[in-house]
Specification:
Elements: E1 4-7, E2 11-15, E3 27-32, H1 52-68, E4 70-80, H2 82-87, H3 89-94, E5 98-106, E6 122-129, E7 141-142, H4 150-157, E8 163-164, E9 168-170, H5 190-200, E10 206-209, H6 216-223, E11 227-232, H7 238-244
Parallel strand pairs: 2-11, 3-4, 3-10, 5-9, 10-11
Antiparallel strand pairs: 1-2, 4-6, 5-6, 7-8
Length: about 240
């Protein structure tokens, strides 16, 4: 049941119960950063403390709904802690998506220190695809490590700006002092979102986030000339959406 709707030409955000349907189609890329089921306080209707089986079933349902709402060459990125992705093995395997790559998002952190564990400072970005996905790896590069090497010099002279990225990306988290920080938990940095969108979409394509929180993925999509659609069950987000659109 839709209780509120805010939209402009390229972005549409809806308070919606995603467990029934996703009222959208022709999505090129899904970016999903779900509640992690570890007790975050979202100060709204979000339940971040489900029974493990209920959480797995929810993720499976979202993956299947996304599959039905996307193009034949689409991608889906699921962002979570690696141990939670490991626990979600069965719902991911049983979905119709294919696992394409495991990307590690690495960030410096001074919180969560423990005498029994190393400090957690990365999350998994699990890249799922359909059979023939749209992929543009060459759009993202990093500087060559040996620019004075003869072979590298030839590549640079031919117009190559750098080499392919590794499958680990060091990108700072959005912190309380960050310029684009909204008053909400677990905001994903736009640099990370930009890489996911650039790699799997063209201008005019549709990017969707069925658990969009502060709508960072949709704002990033619009900046890159894509269209964005998102929904969330937390009505408290309406005030943030009205502010940023």
């Amino acid at each position: 049941m839709i209780t509120n709707k805010i939209s402009n030409e390229n972005i549409e955000l809806i308070i919606n119960d995603y467990s029934y349907e996703l009222p959208i189609e022709n999505v090129q890329t899904f970016i999903i950063d779900p509640p992690y089921n570890i007790g975050f306080d979202y100060k709204g209707k979000v339940n971040d403390n489900l029974y493990p089986d209920d959480y797995r079933n929810m993720i499976y349902d979202v993956l299947e709904l996304a599959y039905d709402s996307s193009n034949d060459n689409s991608s889906l990125f699921l962002i979570n802690y690696p141990e939670i992705i490991f626990d979600l093995y069965n719902p991911i395997k049983n979905s119709r998506w294919n696992v394409h790559q495991w990307i590690s998002w690495v960030y410096p952190s001074n919180i969560g220190h423990s005498k029994r564990k190393f400090t957690t400072a990365h999350r998994t970005v699990l890249w799922l695809v359909k059979d023939n996905p749209k992929i543009y790896i060459d759009r993202l590069t990093q500087p060559y490590k040996n620019p004075d090497d003869k072979r590298i010099k030839k590549l640079i002279e031919s117009g190559r700006k750098g080499t392919h990225l590794y499958n680990w990306w060091e990108i700072n988290m959005v912190k309380n002092v960050s310029k684009d920080k909204q008053l909400y938990v677990n905001q994903i940095p736009q640099e990370l979102l930009m890489r996911l969108i650039i790699t799997t979409t063209d201008k005019g394509d549709l990017v969707a986030d069925p658990m969009c929180g502060t709508a960072s993925s949709l704002i990033t999509a619009e900046k890159l000339g894509r269209k964005g659609w998102g929904c969330d069950v937390n009505e408290d987000l309406i005030q943030i959406w009205e502010k940023i659109i």
